[in-house]
Specification:
The complex is a heterodimer of chains A (205) and B (361).
Chain A (H helix, E strand, L loop, with lengths): L1 H11 L1 H4 L7 E2 L20 E5 L6 H15 L8 E3 L14 E6 L6 E9 L5 E9 L4 E2 L9 E2 H13 L1 E2 L27 H11 L2
Helix pairs in contact in A: 3-4
Chain B lengths: L7 H9 L21 H4 L9 E3 L5 H27 L6 E4 L5 E8 L6 E10 L2 E9 L5 E13 L2 E9 H8 L6 E10 L5 E13 L7 E10 L3 E10 L9 E10 L3 E10 L4 E11 L4 E7 L24 H6 L7 H9 L7 H4 L10
Antiparallel strand pairs in B: 2-3, 3-4, 4-5, 5-6, 6-7, 7-8, 8-9, 9-10, 10-11, 11-12, 12-13, 13-14, 14-15
The chains are: A alpha/beta (205), B alpha+beta (361).
């Protein structure tokens, strides 16, 4: 009880006290254990990403890997990503620790969703990111007002895949990648200090 | 606080145990005498938890769901365990020397030697006392849960239970881990139109990372087929830069298929003043439709009209009424249900009676 209430309160009180608080939130398994990939190491055990080459273009695959690289840039974390062999057209769920594909999302308010399969102890077995096939995504430097920036959306979803949840505090700055909610025309391709603190809490060197 | 769930191995052992035979008498204690609080302890699906939702998701809704998840984990975990463990015939049953019908289910975790005994004893035609006695591999035996279920029909009625985090930690947690304190809950689920529960965490603290005992209370009311409401109060020294303890009061109300609203007040108990207030409305998709905060925030700017979102104007906090009631924020409908379903008829002494029932046939 204490943890999330502290976050909620502390953030609401920022305007009162003038001091910021950490807002990042870790995703938890059904038994309450914080979720994480096991045995991740920057040198010896990178995380493999399989991208569905049938539904994502080459430019989109590049954007995915740029988003992954952004998470890996957090120097306090021992993260590195590699791209799985892409000679198969479809990357099925579970074929790599992280799988990304376009697909159907039943919730009409979602642009993307990450399905994380984790053990009761929190160890993540696989994470599948689905980009809503009905949405318009872009990879251009300038994001059109009617399109979702694919790199920004994948950056957020990779945070879920790594074991982060949405911050539940009030008044979370809009620069925080893991803040809930996305809108077309918005570009958010860099991590906020709070995102870095979150990923480093899970994968600290 | 970690979620309280019994080890899977214990649950698995339940299925492996062989039931006793025999035909139960008319007033025999059976699995019907165990409450089923599924709709008060089961999580609502939260598909937005790991999604990029288009728009501004409601923050206070997410906070309330997180809180509900915590309570469900603690209460629902225990109730689900009891329900599953007692779904088979008891390992022992009959009449004790006082002439009371009893049933006992024994569960053993073969990997640790930990044992749990669920003992149900009928103390009145409509009243069953429940005790869960734990025993670890070292032979230490302590009561984990005590309480009384007032049965109105199979699995439904009212009740009051106490759960000891101290004893659970002493028996089953590695040294220096677990939690202190206790969890007290009352429920009412006999009425067709309204189910509710009241939960109190008393002097709860993390043994490994103590930060002082904390107290928390939450009411949940489900208006069957209509919606529901949730209110909570929590007091602790959340913010070191503010002297003394702070209290956070939250009210959430929703209508099925329509949306909802949340109102939050944070006050300094030492300074006797309100520090911040927030109001939020959301639509059926969980997206914020209006927001207001005092003091205002640049990151969550005020927008829209929070006065009557989803036609729930009367669900907001009536501060004048709260002050007249000595800062208590009661829910008369829940109180009435706890009365009519029997939960309030269980005294604190009966609910916390941790003596081991006599189950000698």
């Amino acid at each position: 009880v204490t943890h999330w209430y502290r976050a909620l309160l502390a953030a609401l009180l920022v305007t009162t006290t003038g001091s910021a608080a950490s807002a990042f939130e870790r995703a938890r398994s059904e038994s309450g254990a914080p979720e994480h990939f096991a045995n991740v190491d920057v040198d010896t055990s990178p995380l493999t990403i399989a991208i569905d080459t049938r539904s994502l273009t080459s430019a989109e695959r590049d954007a995915v890997m740029r988003a992954a690289a952004t998470w890996a840039e957090a120097s306090c974390a021992k993260l590195r990503f590699t791209l799985a062999a892409t000679d198969t057209a479809v990357a099925p769920k579970g074929s790599a620790p992280i799988v990304i594909a376009r697909g159907t999302l039943t919730n009409a308010t979602f642009a993307a969703h990450t399905d994380v399969i984790a053990e009761r102890d929190g160890m993540i077995m696989s994470a599948t990111i689905t980009l809503d096939e009905k949405r318009k995504f872009t990879t251009t430097a300038d994001v059109a007002a009617d399109a979702f920036d694919l790199e920004s959306v994948v950056l957020h979803e990779l945070g879920h895949a790594l074991g982060l949840a949405h911050p539940i505090a009030l008044n979370v700055p809009r620069a925080v990648v893991m803040k809930a909610g996305t809108k077309p025309g918005v570009k958010l391709r860099k991590l906020d200090a709070d995102d870095v603190a979150g990923v480093c809490a899970i994968y600290s060197r | 606080m970690k979620k309280l769930t019994m080890p899977l191995a214990i649950l698995a052992a339940v299925a492996a145990l062989t039931a006793c035979g025999g035909q139960p008498s008319a007033d025999a204690v059976t699995s019907d005498d165990v409450p089923d609080l599924t709709d008060l302890t089961q999580a609502d699906a939260d598909g937005s938890a790991a999604a990029a939702q288009v728009g501004d998701p409601a923050t206070l809704l997410a906070a309330a769901e997180k809180e509900g998840e915590q309570v469900r984990g603690d209460v629902g975990g225990v109730l689900k365990f009891i329900k599953e463990a007692t779904s088979r015939a008891p390992d022992a049953h009959g009449e004790n020397v006082q002439g009371q019908q009893f049933a006992r289910w024994d569960i053993t975790d073969p990997s640790t030697g930990n044992k749990v005994h669920i003992i149900a004893i009928r103390t009145a035609p409509d009243r069953v006392r429940l005790v869960i006695q734990g025993e670890n591999g070292d032979g230490l035996s302590l009561p984990l849960l005590t309480g009384v279920f007032v049965k109105k029909a199979p699995h439904v009625g009212g009740g009051r239970f106490h759960l000891s985090f101290d004893n659970i930690s002493s028996l089953f947690s590695p040294a220096g881990t677990g939690h202190t304190g206790s969890l007290h809950f009352l429920f009412a689920n006999a009425r067709p139109d309204l189910h509710g529960r009241r939960v109190l965490y008393v002097n709860v603290d993390d043994i490994a990372n103590p930060s002082g005992p904390k107290n928390f209370a939450a009411d949940l009311v489900r208006l069957v087929g209509v919606g529901g409401r949730f209110r909570s109060i929590y007091a602790a020294d959340f913010v070191p830069q503010v002297p003394g303890d702070e209290a956070l009061g939250m009210r959430v109300a929703w209508k099925d298929g329509l949306g909802g609203r949340a109102d939050v007040v944070i006050a300094s108990l030492a300074q006797q003043k309100v520090l911040a207030v927030a109001h939020e409305c959301w639509d059926n998709g969980g997206l914020r439709t209006a927001y207001k905060q005092v003091p205002q925030s640049a990151d969550d700017p005020d927008a829209g009209d929070v006065s009557n979102c989803s036609d729930l104007a009367d669900a907001t906090i009536d501060q004048a009424a709260v002050q007249q009631n000595g800062a208590q924020d009661s829910d008369p409908d829940l109180d009435n249900a706890l009365d009519s379903d029997g939960a309030n008829s269980v005294s604190d002494a009966d609910a916390s009676d941790d003596s081991v029932p006599d189950v000698s046939p």
